[in-house]
Each structure stands twice: as C-alpha cells, then as structure tokens.
Design brief:
heterodimer, A: alpha/beta, Beta Polymerase, domain 2, 6-stranded mixed beta sheet, two-stranded parallel sheet, 8 strands, B: mainly alpha, Cytochrome-c3 Hydrogenase, chain B, 3-stranded antiparallel beta sheet, about 10% strand
C-alpha cells in the first residue's frame, strides 16, 4: 500500500487545474474531506481492530495475506561448485552472488570457455538451459552481461555464469562445449551485436541479413529505425523507408 | 550404356526452399534443404519471419502489462505462457499465492496442455496423411476453449493469470462442466489411439523416423516430449514444482527409442496424465482468496531471476532482470522451448527423405510465434 500512495497526489492536481481553474474554492472543501474521510475510516478500523485484539493476535498470517517478501542478495562463495570452479580454474570466479535461490558466478571473460568446460565435464552441468545478454550502456567496466544458465541432472541444480563484455570485445563461443549454444549465441549476436569467437556460423537469426542495428540494445529506439534506407539507399531516401523515422533522433514529426 | 555420360537424372545436389509458405511447416518456418533426389543431405532452418520484438516491448511497460504479450508467443498455449511469466514475477517479488489461485492455475494450464496437444495431434496426423483425427481432436479442443471462454472471455489469447493469483473466480457450475469434460475425455483419447496407434501406415511413417539419443537430446537442449521420448525422465512440474504441482500425483511418461512414434506415445500419455491432474485439482480445489495481497504498483528489487514452467512444448523459461525499485523489467528474456527444439531439426532429418521432414517438424511440435517472439 505504501507504494500506492505516492502515485495518487501527482495525478490529482493537474486534473483540478486543467478542468476548473477558477473553482479552486469549491474544490478544496470537496477534495479535502475525501482523504481525511478515508484516513479517519482507516483509523477507526485500525482502532476497532486494536480493541478487538483478534486480527493482531491471530498469530502469523498466511503468506499470501502478508506483504511480499522480496528475495535478498547473499554471498555464494561457499557453494561447493563455486569453490570447485575457483580452485580448478584459477582467477576465474570474480564474484559469487545468491539471489532468490539462484547462484550467479561472475567469471572473467578470458577464463569463460575453460570454466564452462570444467563445469560441463567435471561438474556434470550437461545441459545449457539458456544463454542471453543484458545491456547496461552506462556501466564503466563493460557494457554487456552475457549470461549462461546451466543445469545438472543428478541433483537438479542450476548455476548461472555471468561475464562482463564491452562493446568491442568478443566473447569465446561455447558451441564447442554445448551444441545447443549455437542458436542462442546467434540470437545474442543479432540482438546485441556481441561477437562470439569461434562460432561456426555467426549470422543474424531473428532479423534479416543487412538489418541495421541491434534491437535489444538500450539505445535502439522501440519504434525501429529506417532499415529500408539503410539497405536500399538508392530506392528510399533517408527517413522515407518502409519504417518511418517517427520517434527516432532523425525524425519525429508524428 | 555409357556410365560416364551425365544423364538428366544424375543431378548431384539440389537446393529446395521448403516454406515459409507451406502448410506443413506449421507457420512461417523456412527450411533450406540440400537434396540428392528425395534424400536430405542437409537442412537449414531459417526463422525470424514472425519476429515482433516482444522482449524489447517488455522493457517499455510495467510488469503487469507484459502479461498480454506473453499470450502471443505460443499462441496455442497461452495459459502456460501466462503461468511462466507470473511464476517468475512472483519469484522476483517474493509473493506467495493463495492455494485456490494455484489450483485454478493448474486447472487452466492442464486444460491448455490438452488443447495444445490436440492441435499437435491434429496437425501432425494431417501432415502425414491421416485426416480424420483432425476433426475428432478439434471437436474436443472446442470444448476446452468453451471452458476458457466461460472463465476469462477469451478463447485463445487468454490473459488468464495475474501476478499474485488469478483475475476471476470460477463461474457457477464451471467445475461441474470441467469435471464432466475431464471424465469424458479419456474415451476420446481411445478414439484417437484406435485411429493411429496400431495403424500400419502411421507406424511406417513414424517408427524410426527422426531418432535422437538421450545424450544428443540433452546436448541439443531439447526439452518436453522430445526429451522424454528419448527416455529422459524429466519434467519441470516434478523437478522444480511451481504452483502446487508437488501436491498432485501424476506420472512422467517416457519413450525408449527417441523416434517420432515414441514422442507420439509420450504426448498421448501426457494427455491422460493431464486429465488425472485436472480431476485431482477439481477434487482438492480449496476455498479462500484468489489473489495474494500485493501492492498495486509492483516494484522489484535489483537482481536477476529465472523461473520456468513445463509448457506443452517443453521448458518455457523467463529470465527477468530488474533494477532497484524498477516498475518495468529492465530485461526480460524468454527461453522458448520451440526455438531450442527446432535447432535440432537438421540432426533429425539428415539422411532421411523429404516426407520424413514433414513428420519431424510435426513431432517437434513447434509454434513459430514462440520461436521468433
């Protein structure tokens, strides 16, 4: 509820100003009692509840009646797999974080392939579930996170590796470790423009060859960019392609 | 007479573009085939014709507004898409949902699994040449869609779950109608099986077609029936139970040969298990609220979570990155089962005939809306 309240005040004043600029006098009495009425009602209800003493003393509430309990970050360095990896591949684990029961190991970019090989062959993380990237344009140590999410069948444990990459750095491809990484890396390349060293066939996958830009980067406009002009400059003048430049830096007359 | 003279029929290799406008590709999948006569030397799936930038759109809207967009990914199984998203969001926000909401969700998800498997069976069979199952399965699917329509007003893009519970109470008499359907449905499964399971043509078209071993299936990241058909007993509902699946008694059917016929048997058995789950949910359906007490404006803490559900096609996962006090997902990545499964298509069809490609596309049960997002 506390999250809800900050949103209501900004909404009310512009309305009253725009609709009836002169009627401020009438409004104040009409507006004021409302919150106070509500407050009073709430107070009365709270007092009644206190008097009765029932709801407060009913013991622990059911979890769905209580406030949400967001997960917290914990240190994950003591995890056996994190320790095994740190021992086997020296200097690979830069940080270990546990959040919502998920272990995330930050791995040095140059040790990534070695770490993945070790985790797959020695630690039996045979199944690469997911591979994706996150863009943080303002971050100093590197713009992208490349995220690997793997699974071990024997005890159903999942582990996440995260490596930080800047715009001009390639990442080693893990297609040699897990075959399934092939399309996932192609998708990351297509959407973020991250190059994977040693990938057998690094082509665009969801957009077409010659598409201009990488859509999931934060600086790519949601409305799209004028790809027509980028591919066929002689057919479409800049800003006149199939996708108009409305809303982008160049255009925006709509 | 003279062997060295190349004849008209000695064409070494031919390239054939199969799709994207082909009824047997289940949407806009295009497969570039390298053929030697009827034999497939290599196949290269080309995707992206239905790319709508859903992951980009997620970043522009508050968490609850993302939900209708998940419907449009796997459009024959919207309820499980919803479920994947809300389960992940609840993990991120730390919300525990009331038991009644969890049971309603499981009911909807299992009905959706039946509907999705019925579409799979219909299209798979019609691709191979058996037309009759199509009419049978769509008859039952329509009954399921009627139940959905009664619950949430929509038949396909359901938008039938919310972060923290479900939006509507079950309508009067819905549970009775659902129970009647569930009790009647096993009879219809028998009908489909009568048509196909021991049918000689069906077996000739599916047995030993598109074989993949358990090791290869894991290596290629297959999930769902394609993985179970190869004999790996693995189901997210059992491994990482979400909602209240840990209270439900059901089996995970597995195959042994990893061929198209085994995947067919696995899915048929899964339908029976879904019926079991529906019946148990209806019996155990608890009372109480259907929404958890969640703030009206959802704000996440800084962090990244991944959670997945067992969609009819395999493991459907959502990976959500949130910034501190963020109301929108900073990044929301979807791990669609079809995207990963169709990647293994060349492995399954190499060295087979073109007609087998149609059978293999059918058996992978892909939906292009989810592949391209």
């Amino acid at each position: 509820m506390s999250d809800d309240t900050p949103n209501t005040p900004p909404e009310v004043p512009p309305k009253s100003e725009g609709e009836q600029p002169q009627a401020t006098r009438d409004e104040t009495p009409a507006d004021k009692p409302k919150p106070s009425d509500k407050d009073q009602a709430a107070k009365i209800a709270a007092a009644k509840a206190k008097d009765k003493g029932e709801p407060a003393d009913q013991g622990p509430k059911e979890p769905w009646e209580d406030k949400p309990r967001p997960p917290a970050h914990e240190d994950g360095a003591q995890d056996p797999d994190a320790r095994a990896l740190a021992e086997a591949v020296a200097g690979s684990v830069l940080a270990a974080d546990r959040f919502a029961g998920e272990l995330t190991l930050t791995v040095a970019r140059n040790k990534l392939i070695e770490a993945c090989r070790f985790l797959k062959n020695q630690q039996q993380f045979a199944f690469l579930v997911d591979l994706t990237a996150v863009d943080w344009p303002e971050r100093a140590e590197g713009r992208f996170d490349v995220v690997y999410w793997m699974h071990r069948f024997s005890d159903s444990k999942r582990l996440r590796l995260r490596t930080v990459v800047s715009e001009d750095q390639p990442v080693g491809s893990v297609t040699g470790v897990w075959k399934t990484a092939n399309w996932m890396e192609r998708e990351v390349f297509d959407m973020f423009g991250i190059y994977f060293d040693g990938h057998p066939n690094l082509e665009r996958i969801l957009t077409w060859e010659g598409f201009n830009g990488h859509p999931l980067r934060k600086d790519f406009p949601v409305v799209g960019i004028d790809t027509g002009a980028a591919i066929y400059p002689d057919v479409y003048p800049p800003g006149g392609g199939p996708v108009t430049a409305a809303g982008t830096e160049e255009g925006g007359d709509q | 007479m003279n062997d060295s003279t190349p004849s008209l029929f000695d064409v070494e290799e031919m390239e054939l573009s199969f799709g994207p406008q082909h009824p047997a590709t289940h949407g806009v999948l295009r497969v570039m085939l390298k053929l030697d006569g009827e034999k497939i030397l290599d196949a290269k799936p080309i995707i992206g014709y239905l790319h709508r930038g859903t992951e980009k759109l997620f970043e522009t809207m508050p968490f609850p507004q993302c939900l209708p967009h998940t419907d449009r990914m796997d459009y024959v199984a919207a309820a499980t898409n919803n479920q994947g998203f809300v389960v992940t969001m609840e993990k991120l926000l730390g919300i525990t949902i009331p038991p009644r909401a969890a049971y309603i969700r499981m009911l909807l998800a299992e009905l959706q699994r039946l509907a999705s498997h019925l579409v799979w069976l219909a299209t798979h069979a019609i691709d191979i040449g058996a037309m009759t199952p199509f009419f049978y399965t769509f008859r039952e699917r329509d009954a399921i869609l009627d139940l959905f329509e009664e619950y949430c007003g929509a038949r396909l893009t359901l938008n039938c779950m919310r972060i923290g519970g479900v939006p509507h109470e079950l309508p009067d008499g819905w549970t009775d109608r659902c129970a009647a359907f569930a009790n009647d449905f096993p009879r219809h499964i028998e009908e489909y099986e009568d048509l196909l399971t021991n049918n000689r043509i069906w077996k000739r078209r599916t047995v030993d077609v598109g074989v993949i071993s358990a090791e290869d299936a894991i290596e290629w990241g297959l999930t769902g029936p394609p993985l179970r058909g190869s004999g790996v007993k693995w189901d997210i509902r059992k491994v990482f139970p979400y909602d209240r699946y840990d209270e439900i008694d059901f089996e995970i059917p597995i195959g042994s040969n990893g061929d198209t016929y085994d995947r067919y048997l696995v899915r048929i058995e899964e339908m029976r298990q879904s019926v079991r789950i529906i019946q148990q949910c209806l019996i155990r359906l608890p009372g109480g609220p259907i929404m958890a007490k969640a703030p009206k404006v959802l704000r996440a803490g800084q962090g990244m979570v991944y959670a997945s559900v067992e969609a009819p096609k395999g493991e459907l996962g959502y990976f959500i990155v949130a910034t501190d006090k963020g109301t929108n997902p900073y990044r929301c990545h979807v791990r669609p089962p079809s995207f990963i499964n169709v990647q293994a298509l060349p492995e399954l069809v190499r060295g087979r005939l073109v007609a087998d490609l149609v059978a293999v596309i059918g058996t992978l049960d892909i939906v292009l809306g989810e592949i391209d997002r």
